[in-house]
Structures
1.
Amino acid sequence: MSTDATSRTSMLRTLLHRPYFWGLIAIALLLAVNSLKDPSYLAIGYNANTGSLVGNVIDILRAAAPIAMISVGMCLVIATAGIDLSVGSLMAVAGAVSMELLASAGGSAGAALAALGLALLLGAVLGAVNAVLISVVGLQPFISTLVMMLAGRGLAKVITGGQNTAASNETFRWIANGYVLGLPVVFLLAVLIVIAVGLLVRRSALGLMIEAIGMDPRAARLAGVNRRGLLFAVYIASGALAAVAGIFASASVMTVDVSNTGYQLEMDAILAVVIGGTSLAGGKFNITGAAIGALLIATLDKTVVFLGISSSATPAFKAIVIIALCLLQSQRVRDLFRARRAKTAPVTSDAPKEAVAA
Amino acid sequence: MNPTRRTILGASAAGLVAAALAACSSGAEGGGAGSGDPVTIGFVAVGPEGAWRQANEQNIQDTFTEDAGYTLKYAPATNLDQKSQIDAFTSFIDEGVDLILLSATEGSGWEESLGRAQEAEIPVILIDRGIEPDDTELYATRLAPDNVAVSTSVAEWAKSTFPDGAKYFVLEGPAGVSVVNERNEGWAQAMEGESAFTDLGSQTANWSTEEAKSVFETVLKSNGNDVQLVFAQNDEMGLGAAQAVQEAGLTPGEDVKIATIDGTQAALEALSEGTLSFVAEYNPLFGEQALEAVGTVLEGGEVEPYIQIESTTFDSPEAADEALPDRKY
């Protein structure tokens, strides 16, 4: 009994030291606030017609899927001490090319597959262009991806001829609106992709090597790490994941809006990564954290609407939540709290341990 | 030594720019029709935003052709960014165009740029979007359909369709844009004192179908699907709301009636199928009126500070079917 209790406290303690702990707390708080407004907020119903679970939480999971995709890509890029500002624009490109293809190719499943493949390919190619600019030409990631951010949206407009293109294709639509075992397909796909990427980088040496070039490129090179190859891998991954996000976003309404699809989502992705406990300076990264950060941003977006916060106050509300979260995460602020507590109570040995990222 | 070198460099750079400009303008003149100098017009435009804007800007471009004696320089904003518009505006002044057409992405912050145009004696005509504060001294005239009147027509329709009242939600464009303020104003004025109607709130969906769907699916949940009327301030958001209604297992047009503004082809098709219930047109095709106003202004004549463009409304599938065959946008 007592050993059980201690193991539970130690589990709690490791959780507390996880960088994404405060993100989880923030999600719980937001859900609690929503439940205060409407006690049945967390209730999940079942719609027999579509075979799907229905509820606010399901909506949040669905809304989090595209953000989680770009956040995971962003997380890998940031770990190499880079940044990818082009993900939002690449979403628009992927949406544009798939909608254009579907609008002309029609509603068959084959057309949907072709659109998927083409969008992913284009995302990966544009990611590779970023990688060339950064690792071969030697431009700074900020500048290279900023160029791609502007060029990408331009490209999307060229693809659709400046219009917002709509198409109809049941298979493609199913990706964002369908259900399997009652859960949204888009959420299941996102979870699978997050797990796949997580396993790939953590079960192999890939993750360590990415961290190595982010921490100290020179030491990594001396240790024989192939920096160029790794940079190609992460920027291509980020581009392809952005394409997945673009497919999710445009399939949801079967329309691509070249000015609005993915607009400023790179900021959401960066926030999600930071909330997840990955430092913008590069080095140690945390994929689970990035996914939780994405979930938090989706929860925040939905909360704003659910509480009926007025449109003009929305950005301020989001900013306040995020600033509060960053303050809680900051080591200095936590030290301040700890020092204050130490004055009133004797300290239990609580040396900050580096939590190994999952 | 150094200063001289810098002047020489500067002078040659200026020379280069001048040469480039001369090349530009001579090219433009060469393209003009033989009858006198073509009038150069700078069009500071919004760019890709939706089908309405596309129709509007295409119509302007098709009207001010070289055959009509105009050289139109089209400068769309980058991602609806006001800064890129101000840059384009300033370079048109420096270039010395004869007149500037302006569709501002945001209402405020134009005083300085408009003041500079005035100093350079370049008249400015506002197309569609107004400026805030609305200082009519700063521009020659504004051509636009009346947003307040259009959204009032939506409210009047709502009152006649729901004589016993309804619970309604408003999907707005981005906060701070003059169109949004005016559409809110017309709706609020007409709805004032209607105790049968319950305002469930309003939220921005940034003119986007995707965001409108996401916003409205949450609104439906937070009100237990008890919403009878949606006022979407553009067609795209209305179509997004309709998808959210369908996903919630309700029927748009029966359980939830959706009214939109703009009158694009996609919206009229949806009206014809019954997914939308009311579409108020916001007429984008006023190139002819703009041409007339530009002519008068350039000859030094007086024009009204505001020229209203007439719009119609569509309240039934039949009306939509009738208008669809020759819808241009």
Note: Chain A has one domain: 17-39+60-344.
2.
Amino acid sequence: MLSNLGNILLFSKVLLSLTIIYFSYQCIKSSSVIIFKKIYQISLLQSTLVLGCFFTLIAAYVVSDFSLINVYQNSHTAKPLLYKISGTWGNHEGSLLLWIIILTIFSFLFLIYNNKHPKNYRLYTLIIQNVLILGFLFFILFNSNPFLSLSPIPKEGLGLNPILQDPALAIHPPLLYLGFVGSSIYFSAAIASLITNYSEKSFAFSIKNWVLISWGFQTLGILVGSIWAYYELGWGGFWFWDPVENASLLPWFAMTALFHSLLVLEKRNLLYFWVIILCLITFTLSVTGTFLVRSGILNSVHTFASDPSRGIYILSFLSIMIFGSLFLLLNKYRKENKLIYSNSKETFVLINNWFMMFYLLTVLVGTLYPIFTDALTNNKISVGPPFYNTVILPVVVIFLFFMAIGPKAKWIKNRFDNLGCFALFLFLALVVNFFIIYFFKSFTILSNLVIISSLFLIFSSFFDLVNSILKSRFDLARTISHLSFGFLVLFIGLNHNFSIEKDFNMRVGEVKSFDNYEIQLQNLELKTYNNYKAIIGNLKIKNYVLKEERTLNPEIRIYDNPQTLTYEAAIKTNFIKDYYLTMSNIDRSEFYNIKFQKKPLMIWIWISVAMLVFGGFLRIFKNAKIN
Amino acid sequence: MQRLIKSTITIIFIFIIIIFYISLGKENNYDTVNLVGKKIDSIELQSFNDEKIVNTKSFKDNNFTLINFWASWCGPCRAEHPILMNLKESRSLMLVGVNFKDKKKNAKNFLDDLGNPYDILLKDENGKKSIIFGIYGIPESILLNKELVVIEKFVGPLAKEDYEKILEEIGEK
């Protein structure tokens, strides 16, 4: 029954999208100055139906309705309720439904919240957005339908991959999708703006909150994914330059460049075409990422069951998107003749954009290069962290200096009258860096330059914060975000420099000593849970210097459905450091491999990113207040 | 000039799309389980003792070939060695050892201490050739028939059960 209901709702959605496109076109042709009321009504109905469709699938997961192939393949009766629900979007078909929800709801909200903008611009945005919705709806209906039924109905499902049964992973996809699928709305708006020649400052105004919303959620999605990778994958790192991680970072760079250049368009009516290009490439990169992941071209922890027909569909869709928007852009492109003074805020924003484009291209080349060499020469290579660290890190140093100086520049024509302050910040940064080297005995040129430049940004942003409080002229959003970014880079640098990692093969009862630490595998415990068994290690870690003693319990889990072995890290977190311990069995031996890591300031890395996002959302609330 | 820029941009995008299309048809999932039942390509490896190159095609002369990947630094390789010494007695099985990422001197000492079970001894100094055989880590062994099709793959040290299985496969049990 749920299968029929789901399919009916999907087909109704196709009809509603076609109706919206038809009425919007009629409305554009009519002499009416306002948008037909029925367009609002159908859009509302469309959003309601898509939510209904999604809740139908959730219901099928909750009641374990294995008459649906999708539920049979990805769920199991013994799974906890939370993971039954999150299983809905933990697979290819269900996650596409989430795509449609975000496309539809953003489309509706854009329509109702942008009522001060020209009718035709809003309607064309609605039409383009509905064309995108239709594209994905056809993909769902003809290739990836989550409501396909199965007969005879199996008694039990195949289960969800255990490493996906995790609270962070339950919210990671929705957050990330709100980010990169959300970028569809300004892709549509950019096309509409080109068609209707709506290139005023107010165009920037109409999309800036949407850019910030998608950027905020994209950042949160990346943060949650990194936290999950940190504690679940057992490597002790949080960013691996995995091609699929990179696929989420590419639109993030474009979004970051976009909301900075929107400032210039809004204040100075400059960079219109650049803003349009960024709008187009953000969503294009999002769909490219989806193509790379869903087609099976890339292999990573995110790999979905590979199916070349999916790849062909998304590739065709991507090609239409790219060449359609490229054709329109190249036809409408006119050179801007207004000059930008080289010492002005506009220039600094442009510099920010150059850096973002540099990072974007670096990551894009690193991600696509192995695909290209494989396709052209049959040579399988992988581009790993050394490439990214070598290319990106030195540039980050310069970027952070510009990030500190830029916000203090004035629009149109700037004169720096605060050079003394910059000298002071640099001096302070050098002094703090000197103390770090002196007390912690760690020095490499690049990492210390990273620390100096991030400290420079922190002092500078902190000065801005105090200054704006004193002058009661708050730009809290920007200051918090820049300050947080400085802290983020600083904490990553310190974490990288002062992490300790040790590897042992140990038997039960054995003790190993290193540096100031002693580690003992005291005993093992076997516990049986609802859907898995766990071998729990009891390890005692002693720090002689701090006279500190901690017990950590890493686990080896044996899941029943599907039968899988996972290794759960034991992590003890405080504000100074994390102890991170993983344990794995060595086949046909009584030894266990124990990997111990001390990772300083880990929690501050997460807090910095959360604060970065907080800055972004603060800006949205401020903008909404002004409206 | 503007036309040139426009054409270049369009060509770049067309090129990317074509590459994506070609990639779709490629097998990317690297899975050694699928190796069983597949024919081993012509792979060239260097002889352990001299500069001679041995091609896997030459294994066609034997009824069965067991290729064992090992190194002196690998503890479990030491554990499986007695099994290999027993397999040496088999008439229809050719034993090929591939010394993996090892120092020649250490490998020689290893074989001097424990005995040399291999009919042919090869080396893969940087471990790249072994990847083509679908080797993740060592020890691993693959059993080939006369047509060079993989009949069995053994991940980890050969155990007594594996020994029985090999004898069964080659019809000596």
Note: The mean pLDDT of chain B is 85.
3.
Amino acid sequence: MTDVALPARAVPRRPRSRGLAAFLRNRAAVAGAVVVALFVAVAVLAPLIAPYDPLKTNFLLIRKAPSAAHWFGTDDLGRDILSRLVFGARASLLAGCISVAIALGIGVPVGLVSGYFGRWIDAVLSRVVEALLSCPFLVLAIALGAFLGPSLGNAMIAIGLSAMPIFARLTRGQVLAVKAEDYIEGARAIGLPDRWIILRYVLPNALAPIVVQATLAIAGAIIAEASLSFLGLGQQPPAPSWGSMLNTAKNFLDAAPWMSISPGAAIFAAVLGFNLLGDGLRDALDPKEG
Amino acid sequence: MILSGERPILEAVALTKHFAGRRRLFGRPAAVRAVDGVSLRVRRGETLALVGESGSGKSTLGRLMLDLMPPTAGDVLYAGRNVGALPAAERRALRRELGIVFQDPFASLNPRMSVADIVGEPIWLQGDLSRADRRAEASALLRRVGLRPEHGDRYPHEFSGGQRQRIGIARALASRPKLLLGDEPVSALDVSVQAQVVNLLEDLKAEFGLTLLVVAHGLGVIRHMSDRVAVMYLGQIVELAPVDALFDDPLHPYAQALLASAPNPSPRARKARVLLEGDIPSATRPPPGCRFHTRCPHVRPVCRELQPALEEVAGGGLAAGGRAVACHFWAELAGAGAGARAALPSPAFARRLALFEARSKAAAPAEPAPSRGPAP
């Protein structure tokens, strides 16, 4: 109730700006955003950045330590590791984003319907979601990936389906909270159709934590993709991905440690970037505006 | 003003709402009897207030009468038609004729919609206006409730509580309702703003020919704006009376206590206090007999056994503006409670008061005595 009637012009026009300012004040969040932006730029501009062809083998340069010509060294087939890292960023980011998009695309509608309508729809959907949640995320993803067959596309589907129940449950909880607000009752009171209330009233007000969770889930999906690729269920050779690079590198941990260090560091940095970004978004979006 | 023969715009017939209570380990879950067999008629064009302390079921009754929740038993009649028996389409159309203004202006507006959308949505729902006409109508409504049309591009959080309540009123009016339920429409607002919003509601009532159903616990607001008052206690109406009659001479002991609890600024007019002891009993297990007997200062044995009915006591029938009370002994108790003036606490106090009055008269001889206007 500290709200005061400000003179008309003194008020910023858009509510978004306040969240943005809070986000920019958070240094860790900005660092995360910068790291993420950097990785996205690398993935998009991969052909321009990579010094060599990532698939070109050279039997004279097998497992060479980092040098001026090959900054991160070469792998067991003489391919340039830096170039493979740069192209591997594509697979990792793509897998992260697309699998989270799949999870959002299924999980959010399930949560909306389940939370808004309640009763038996909620009971049925919630039991399905709980059954999926009872399986650990990575185990489920590996099982689904093995079932669907090894390819990057199938890995994305497997990861997306495994991450779906988290979004369904989060959305459902948010919907239950939003549903108790007066403005939902007001919307019903004037006779608005349910579909309209869900899309215009419930979803926008439930979205903030879902966005945060999505950012964090991208980090999880990158690790999952790396894990699946490590097990041979994701990106197929010779195409590069961080996980499959680690998979090969594990055989040479003593002889050529640089083969595992750089993809591992890349995964670490990307995941950290997304996590910081997600945490920053949570802090920026959390305080109730108004 | 109101024709006695006219059909009531809204009527509750033995309306009951039980909420499922906490589940117990053994036995059936205890139901909370929020509203228990209430019959009430709202006349076209009047302002009817529902009062009572929290937990008396006044908000639930208001919501039941607007078809915002299904009753456990009983019926709601709108213009003589049973609302519960209407087909879905007609029922939805009826929603437009019954508007609601919420208590908390900070929770009742969708924070993600612009004010123009909030006010324009009910107009859009009617579906017979072009986009430009809708905007024009929304602007006109905003202007009518005292906001500027250019405020339409902003979001609710950019407004103060009073302004938000005006937005809520504009939205409620946008569907052109016949009856407006105010669910404690001003109790969340600053006192200085309350009067403005009450006056706005009264103006709009006259202008749009509305019927108002006001749920409130602020007695000042009720006295100022309502024609009739229904006093509720534990899910039942204990007294129904025209506002002046109730305030001058409350009949039911609970109504007497309720009125006596309102602070009175003038020490000379202060009335004897009926102090209520204890809390309102749990609505899961209302006391047998008269529900008020656990706290009534005039309780007698029969009160613990027999539940008094709401019976007409004066004024040629309820429809003609008479009053009704649910108490076995109202005739004996009338005037015994809140009507009687309290003696001044002590002779010393009387001396000080006389001195103060003489001084203030001497200090400002030209100024007229402050008129005791309606409280906000």
Note: Chain A has one domain: 17-54+68-285.
4.
Amino acid sequence: MPQVKIIAKNFIDMVASLPAVKLDMLYANPFICEAILRSLPPLAKKYVLQMMYIDAPIPAKSLEEWVLPDGLSKHRVAIDRLIQLRVLSETVDRKKETSYEMNKKFQINLQKQLIHGGILPREPMASSSVILPSSEELEIYALEQWEHFLLHLISSNQSEKLTNFSSSMMKVFQRGLLSQRDKEASRLTEYGFQFLLMETNAQLWYIIREYIANAEERGVDPANIISFLLELSFHETGQAYNINTLNEVQLNTIKDLSDLGLVKLQQGRKESWFLPTKLATTLSVSLSDTATRKQGYVVVETNFKMYAYSTSKLHCEIMRLFARIEYELPNLIVGAINKESLYNAFDNGITSDQIVSFLQQNAHPRVAEKVPTVPENVTDQIRLWESDLNRVEMAPAQFYDEFPSKDLFEAVCDFAREYGALLWDDSKKMQLVVKGELHNEMREFLRRQKQ
Amino acid sequence: MVNATRGLLISCDIPMAQFIISMNNSKPSNQKFIIHVLDDTHLFVQPHATEMIRIAIAEFREANTYEKPA
Amino acid sequence: MAPIASKLYTDDVSLVVLLLDTNPYFWTSSSSSSLSFSHFISHVLSFVNSILLLNQLNQVVIIATGHNTCGYIYDSSLSSVSSSISANESSGDAKMPAFCSEVLKSLEDFVKNDESLSSVDAGNGVGSSLLSGSLSMALCYVQRVFRTGPLHPQPRILCLHGSPDGPEQYVAVMNSIFSAQRSMVPVDSCVIGAQHSAFLQQASYITGGVYLKPQYLDGLFQYLSTVFATDLHSRKFIQLPKPVGVDFRASCFCHKNTIDMGYICSVCLSIFCMPHKKCSTCGSEYGQAQSDASTLSGQKRKEPS
């Protein structure tokens, strides 16, 4: 799903936009190097692996020789990414030839990871001193926390539990998602709807990105939070780690993370510890193009009926966005997709692609293996209904006619085409329509042509 | 001397274009909004006609649908 | 039959099945003088670690090819670092010291077992290792992975081989190559012995894998990470060694000698070096004289009525 890539890429972009000094400090942590490596596009990963033991700079021409002609665009993308993240540094020598050298710290850390494997700064606690919950309990806990958080995010009156986040933090999260109008209850914005239809990892990344961006205002260095989060993803799910191994910044962060369902905090008689959940450890997986392997729950039939085997209120709300909910049974939500509900969704800014990919990705395992997962008549009809709303396109424009000569007409056409503003032309009648914004430039051009 | 007219370019499919033309023809002459009919799928209209056209198309669309009484 | 690669799974998640040649005859002979077994293992372990480093969901399975037997040495999806919680999905990146010693221990056990199985008269020259056995084991594992559902890594087989080809294994090896081709599993080969291996050349050519005989065995890790760590998705974009000339010679089914010209059964296409009265594979009889053939066919024609 492209949205995970966009959101997660934004996270990596955020990392890449850190000042050079901070980024180099981040690379001192071998786990961050590993996480960054895993987030690169596949071609970039290969390049890093190949260059790992090469100390001298490599000329750009040699790098290009590694790729087939088909892959040149991917090659450029990979190289740009590596330079952006300061993994590769570019040098141009006097003969105007570029060569690339790998970031020394990054290189050394990765070499160490390769040979010695990763040793976390903290060891899991012995099982005798802690009572660990089973992995199912942990997963249920994580999901519950996350759903409470989301419900609280969308409408504060719907969830029962209060979260630890201060109301100002919640406002920050809600900034892009809800719009507050005076004397009205807050409504979800267009982006808010899209957010709900995204999958969990993308939503998590969005929240974390906002959290980190906000960290500076609270006086916390974002680099610390980023490094803690990436480190967390290398811990083992369900193992207990003592709280006293965390520094102050990490202590504050961990309370917030437990609200999101990333870790579970527990207290014993003498010590307290935290357990990373699956949400935390699969966080770094979605830095690249993967999706979570969550079990789906939606079955869509050819008669436009939708059956969701779920009890979660959140799922019900999400489905209400674009379908008409008919019954809510103890283990099943029955709904129907019809024109009215879809028009409702389209009015709120959701696109048919988002609805279709939501249905495909959350497909129940029984239908997931069928090709196509969602019946074609349903997907086609959703798209048709959307295009029905867009039958007419309107654009403010200027209409030019009565050209004295064909040459002038051709010249004006080319001029407009260069700016990408030519909307319509007819060479026989010598008339053309140009985007409204270009009118002043066009007037100037015509005046110059007259002379 | 080149003549410039400000307005709105409408691009749509042929039936929609005909619908808009017929709507234009049914209006009294001081309210007609089509400046030029460019070709089968493009029309050039006055800028204020946006909302009017949108509402008319929506009505046309609603008129062709059946909603099961809830 | 062919696996449906799901669009939701990332492009470069791979499952690499490594077939290690542990034939003692090869490793103690002069052909392997430039690379000792312990150096070889250290290159291989670093390579395995680099594959596991590239992606959290990558998996590696190591199968050892011995002289008399083959066995599983290591499976990254089963290894668990701590004893308390058993086999977690996310523990694929095992801590290096634990994973190394696990592999080395299994290898030691395997080699001892292999030695104990060898028969008394196996002293004639450099014996060959059981390539067909390990290829079959690898393919069985891959089939099991295919059946785990729509989301699975893209499998490929990497064969690190040095022993010479044993012509007696020709049929079995060709069968496994064709089944690998059918299930779309590329077989890469890296030959560390002195001579080229015809079996592996054919395997890589038919299944679409890469065949390489490195010149400088000291830099084995660099060859492995440059060529063989490329996942299947990126292979469309990266220059890889092209097959130079494939040795397509077959070996005969009766004596297992490599032959250029021979006799072929017209029914099942099995290859023989000398004329036979009866095909040993399909049981059809041939070589009958013309007169006999006509009475036989006459008899056959009477049956349908």
Note: Residues 1-9, 80-95, 289-300 of chain C have pLDDT under 50 and may be disordered.
